[in-house]
């Protein structure tokens, strides 16, 4: 019988497996955006059960500042009349970008860092941190803790997985998205200049990790940040595809693997994922949440990409265990003979878990194991 690690690496390489791998998206060590499943009293039962039947990808992050030390950052909190206002300011010489959160009478309003054409024109003048020595020093500070986590991680369960970001990340997360959509039409060349600078930083970070053999798998989430209907397929092809393709090629040059993540309306742009060259894609969502069934997706990607999915996270909260069993069987039958990893569409972000959700996780594992024999 193959270990979970052996199943994971085999399916990513296009080699035979004895069972369809199962992935719950549970990391082994704590991350900010998920519940600590090893310690949480509700999830612990699922975590322990998953050791036998599910792949673990221990998702970790390294945070490198976007700008050089010439750019100062200040966070303030103050009262203005009856409102509490928290501001974040980035300053470079006489140039300033600021975001704010205003809370008044129980209502919150926000101003994004990039809220106008002028803000975008200021951003392009900020010096992005691309000094290799400085970036290495920042990453060196993460290394002892990371290597300790790597030693603690039970390798037979799966693999270390690094989520290092993509060039689009800073722009998307700091932009007024209405303006962001318009910039794809009015300021496309300016955005690409910004992306090119952030790409310089990303290449240094990825290469640092690859040269030190820090992980077997790299997780890329940028594709859903500039895609239809927010921007056009043509913009996706310009803001996402070339950068992702170069990063994937770099990862592959060291013999490592890439899983891409995408939520939403994927059918129209799915061929671009072949062009980007990732080993696997999470997740394909059928209507009404998405617009593409697994059958439709496999008709496009053939056997060139592992598809990962595809039970909606809300189903874990609402189904009976019998309904979960039937849903898993239907998915497994739909993908039989294809390169596939069975998973939920989202990770464990609920702190207040119900008995129903936990029972459905356990049923998902049992059913995936029972029906997934190849």
Task: Report on the architecture of this protein.
With 374 residues, the protein is of the alpha/beta class. The chain folds into two domains: 4-66 and 128-371, TIM Barrel (Alpha-Beta Barrel); 72-116, no CATH class. The protein is built from 14 helices and eleven strands. The strands form two sheets. Strands 1-6-7-8-9-10-11 form a seven-stranded parallel beta sheet. It has a four-stranded antiparallel beta sheet with strand order 2-3-4-5. β3 (83-92) and β4 form a beta hairpin. α4 crosses α7 (188-211), α7 (188-211) runs parallel beside α9 (241-253) and α9 (241-253) crosses α10.
Feature tags:
374 residues, alpha/beta, TIM Barrel, seven-stranded parallel β-sheet, four-stranded antiparallel β-sheet
């Amino acid at each position: 019988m193959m270990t979970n690690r052996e199943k994971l690496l085999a399916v990513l390489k296009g080699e035979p497996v004895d069972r369809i791998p199962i992935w719950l998206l549970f990391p082994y060590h704590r991350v900010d955006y998920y519940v600590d499943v090893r310690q949480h009293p509700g999830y612990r039962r699922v975590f322990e059960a998953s050791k036998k039947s599910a792949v673990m990808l221990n998702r970790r992050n390294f945070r490198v500042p976007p700008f050089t030390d010439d750019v100062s950052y200040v966070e303030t909190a103050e009262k203005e009349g009856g409102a509490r206002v928290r501001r974040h300011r980035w300053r470079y010489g006489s140039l300033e970008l600021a975001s704010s959160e205003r809370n008044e009478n129980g209502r919150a309003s926000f101003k994004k860092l990039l809220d106008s054409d002028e803000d975008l024109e200021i951003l392009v003048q900020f010096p992005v941190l691309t000094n290799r020595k400085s970036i290495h020093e920042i990453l060196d500070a993460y290394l002892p803790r990371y290597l300790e986590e790597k030693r603690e991680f039970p390798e037979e369960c799966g693999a270390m997985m690094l989520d290092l970001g993509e060039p689009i990340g800073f722009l998307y997360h700091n932009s007024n998205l209405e303006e962001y959509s318009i910039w794809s039409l009015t300021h496309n060349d300016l955005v690409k200049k910004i992306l090119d600078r952030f790409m310089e930083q990303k290449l240094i970070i990825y290469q640092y990790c690859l040269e030190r053999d820090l992980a077997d798998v790299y997780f890329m989430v940028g594709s859903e940040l500039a895609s239809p209907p927010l921007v056009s397929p043509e913009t996706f092809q310009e803001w996402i595809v070339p950068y992702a393709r170069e990063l994937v090629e770099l990862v592959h040059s060291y013999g490592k693997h890439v899983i891409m993540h995408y939520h939403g309306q994927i059918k129209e742009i799915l061929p671009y994922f072949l062009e980007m060259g990732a080993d696997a894609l999470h997740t394909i969502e059928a209507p009404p949440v998405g617009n593409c069934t697994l059958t439709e997706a496999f008709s496009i990607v053939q056997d060139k990409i592992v598809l990962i999915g595809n039970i909606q996270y809300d189903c874990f909260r609402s189904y009976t265990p019998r309904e979960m069993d039937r849903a898993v069987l239907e998915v497994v039958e739909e993908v039989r003979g294809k390169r596939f990893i069975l998973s939920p569409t989202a990770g464990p972000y609920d702190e207040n878990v119900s008995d129903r959700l936990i029972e459905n996780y356990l049923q998902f594992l049992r059913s995936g194991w029972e029906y997934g024999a190849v």
